[in-house]
């Protein structure tokens, strides 16, 4: 059986790193893309299989990046079976605090870049292939301070359903995975903020936050035979945060608003 090949952006840390390791464990060859060559070298060392891993240090917002990524996958492994558009950034600001530079950065990184990479990759994908876009709960429900981040992730949801519709008949699926708060290097510092912790921990009807393994395993399922009839969906992995009105006992016993006299 021919080894399947997966491209993963944002592979130098967090969800991308965990996904690269997970898909390699499933027997795939992986092309890890990120901006930090040193971190990517560490990923290669952890996987420890030079025949089935390649990395590329590149800014995916650069106009030349998609071709460079696709060319590397084809030169090293001869095919592209899965594209995981994962690269992203956090700590957005609300609409009225977002300047044009920040807007362009978020849209460029989390909507324009995935669009362009998918456009270059999909012409080389065959029946049985799939694209998985990493979205967010902020694209599923409203999120405080979402701003340009919410706009970009909402665009990814629409792009996902378009690809699923346009290319599904060719046997190419597209789905999105929408993580809730996941403990990664990108969000660890936010957990020091008591309000951030309260909004997420006290409103999640499960006794922990998400892990990299949770998200990587969901992506892996969508790349497996078991996920081969799932198309055009967003799978939310958030412990029930976005789909319930849960409040913890601590939250219910806290005075959230001033009492009337």
Q: How much is the average pLDDT? A: 92
Shape: globular
- Order of adjacent strands in the largest pleated sheet: 3-2-1-4-5-6-7
Spell out the helices and strands N to C: EHEHEHEHEHEHHEH
Q: Quote the distance from N terminus to C terminus.
A: 74 Å
Helix proportion range? 25-40%
Estimated share of beta-strand residues: 5-15%
Number of helices: 8
Structural class: alpha/beta
Radius of gyration: 19 Å
Question: Strand tally, please?
Answer: 7
Uncertain runs: none
Tags for this model:
seven-stranded parallel β-sheet; 261 residues; alpha/beta; single chain
Secondary-structure map with pairings?
Elements: E1 5-9, H1 14-25, E2 29-34, H2 37-47, E3 53-57, H3 65-77, E4 82-85, H4 100-122, E5 130-134, H5 147-167, E6 173-179, H6 194-201, H7 212-222, E7 234-237, H8 249-252
Parallel strand pairs: 1-2, 1-4, 2-3, 4-5, 5-6, 6-7
Helix pairs in contact: 1-7, 3-4, 4-5
What would your notes on this structure say?
By secondary structure, the protein is of the alpha/beta class. The protein is 39% helix and 14% strand. It is built from eight helices and seven strands, in the order βαβαβαβαβαβααβα. It has helices spanning 14-25, 37-47, 65-77, 100-122, 147-167, 194-201, 212-222, 249-252, and strands at 5-9, 29-34, 53-57, 82-85, 130-134, 173-179, 234-237. A seven-stranded parallel sheet has the order 3-2-1-4-5-6-7, sandwiched between helices. Helix 2 links the parallel strand 2 and strand 3. Helix 1 crosses helix 7, helix 3 runs parallel beside helix 4 (100-122) and helix 4 runs parallel beside helix 5. The mean pLDDT is 92.
């Amino acid at each position: 059986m021919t080894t399947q090949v997966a491209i993963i952006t944002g592979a130098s840390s967090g969800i991308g790193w965990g996904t690269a390791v997970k898909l390699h464990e499933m027997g795939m060859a992986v092309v890890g893309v990120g901006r930090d060559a040193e971190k990517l070298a560490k990923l290669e060392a952890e996987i420890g299989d030079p025949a089935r891993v390649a990395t590329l240090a590149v800014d995916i917002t650069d106009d030349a990046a998609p071709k460079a990524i696709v060319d590397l996958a084809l030169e090293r492994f001869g095919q592209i079976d899965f594209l995981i558009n994962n690269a992203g950034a956090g700590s957005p600001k609300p609409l009225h605090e977002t300047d044009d530079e920040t807007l362009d950065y978020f849209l460029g990184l989390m909507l324009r870049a995935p669009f362009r990479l998918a456009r270059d990759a999909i012409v080389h994908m065959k029946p049985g292939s799939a694209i998985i876009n990493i979205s967010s709960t902020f694209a599923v429900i409203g999120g405080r301070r979402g701003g340009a981040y919410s706009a970009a992730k909402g665009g990814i949801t629409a792009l996902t359903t378009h690809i699923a519709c346009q290319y599904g008949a060719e046997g190419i699926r597209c789905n999105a995975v929408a993580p809730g708060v996941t403990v990664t290097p990108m969000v660890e510092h936010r957990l020091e903020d008591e309000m951030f912790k309260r909004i997420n921990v006290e409103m999640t009807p499960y006794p922990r936050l998400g892990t990299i393994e949770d998200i990587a395993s969901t992506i892996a399922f969508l790349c497996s035979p078991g996920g081969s009839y799932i198309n055009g969906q967003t799978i939310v992995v958030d412990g029930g945060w976005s789909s319930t009105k849960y409040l913890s006992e601590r939250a219910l016993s806290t005075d959230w608003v001033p009492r009337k006299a």
